[in-house]
Amino acid sequence: MAAPRPTSKLPPGANRILFVKNLNYQITGEGPVRPLRSEQAFVVYDDVMDAKNALEHLNGFHLQERYIVVLYHMPAKQDAAAAKADLARREEELAQLKTKHNLGDL
Asked: Are 52 and 86 spatial neighbours (Cβ–Cβ below 8 Å)?
């Protein structure tokens, strides 16, 4: 007999790590909650379906005078943003070197 199929499908990008923002600054990390910086944290679940359930039920939840935002963690988007920031920094360094050595636009 085949294993039972899950009753609900996972959206693209679903994983067991959630990114939570707009947290009250007094909230601290406990258990699976890993604080990132003020007002933000990662929550790591053992099962992707638990993460999906938490996202569906807690996104927009009113917690300590704030409405929290819950998203799936997207490391590829973070990496792309970091690469873009690094490129801008390197272009600025190049422009400074061109100016310093009187190279103009090459």
From this structure: no
